[in-house]
Every structure is written in structure tokens, then in C-alpha cells.
Fold this protein.
Amino acid sequence: MSGSRIVSIAGVPANVNGLSRVEAQLIAAHEAVAQGDGILAPYEPALLASLPRDPSTIITVLDIAETARRLEHDGIPRYGWARIRSLGPLTITRLLPMELRLGLQLLGPRIAGLGLMLVAAELRHVADHGFRAAALHWLISDFLVATGNRGWLSGYIGVARRYGLRTGLCSNDVGRALQLANELRGLDFVIAPLSAAGFRMTPNQLACEAIIRRRRGELIPYLGSLSTFDPADHAYAQGLGLDRFVVDA
């Protein structure tokens, strides 16, 4: 396959040959690097410490489903303390000024403010480990794209910029995500499914193609799993001038 392939390791299964999820993801990441590919990896402190600091690595932040699961399992005090410890003293020290600033700005919108403070902590940690690109996780990206929440996204972009990170979204709605990206300053890329058949291209395929061609930021098409890779979708993406693409490991 020509073009630059970014391998997503988020869906690598756990408990295969007795490996934990993080161990299985690390093996998948090093296999991808050995093939000269980039990586799309979830934010996980144990994973960050061992991933290669390649400029093409993208870390997805603020997995709200995983956060909710851990909160329910551990409770707020235990989960909060575990999160603080996982950041390490260097990140905590660097993070405090930003958290205080965000806290004062976001006293009103409590849930939205808490989410932005969580993502700020993860972005700071990502930057401190030497990575240079981050994208909002699929779930929160799709919610923000569907609601058109430009204010929250502008806050996310601003925080990431202060930490020297390129910023992106991972959305299942390529048309709306690109339209929103075109309206926002500083959003560098969008990762979204793209297919020759026009799957999930809102409002229609021709409109999405027009947005792709005049885009300000980069579209990185998600082309599914390596095991079910469709060369027609790859050729379609390349025909639109898209050289980088994401596939599942």
C-alpha cells in the first residue's frame, strides 16, 4: 500500500496469550514502527511511557466511556488520586497554572469545565512525554461535532497550542467534522471514515468531496481494519489528494 499508514492500536484485544491490554498495544505499536508506520494510540499513562516518540504518533485524549467506567469502579476520591499519581511530579507542576486559569474561567459550566480540565491534564502529560499530536477521542468528538460546541473546542485547541501540540478530532461524521474544522482556527486535522461508496458522508458525497478539496486542515481517512482493507477506498482517498490514512491493527 502506498501512502503513509497510521496504525490504530486502541482496539487491540487483551488477554491474548496472557497479555494485558497495554502489553498487547505496545507489541502492536512496535510492530507498526518496525514497518515504518505511524501510530494512533489511546491516552494511557503506562502506554505513554513506552511508546516511541515518533512525530507521526497521535494520542487520543478524553475517553469519557473509560473515565466513567473507572469512576464507577473506584469512586471519585480513589480515581482522582490515581489520576494525579499517574501524571508524575513534573507534569503536575507544569499543569497547575493552567488548571487554576481554567478553574477561574469555568466556574459556571461545571460539567463542561471539568471535561476541559481533564483534557488539559492529559494533553500536558502527552506533551511532557515528547509527543507532538493529539486528537479528541471518538465519543467526545462526535458529541461536540453533533452539537457544534465551538466554545469548548476553542478551549481545547487553545490548551493544546500552549503545550505545543497539533490538534485534531476523531469523528464518524466526516462532513460535519470538516465543516466545523473549517470554521475553527487552529484545528490541524480530522480523522474520519471515508469510503468510495459515500458511507457516512453528510450531507452527501459530492458536498464532502468539495469540503475535502478546500479544507484548511488535513483529513486523515480511517479505512477500517487491515484484515478487511478495501483497496478501492484507499484509491478513492488518494484521488482526493489524501496521502495519510488510519487502519486498525
Remarks:
- The chain has a mean pLDDT of 83.
- Residues 76-105 form the longest helix (30 residues).
- The chain has one domain: 4-248.
- The CA atoms of residues 193 and 222 lie 4 Å apart.
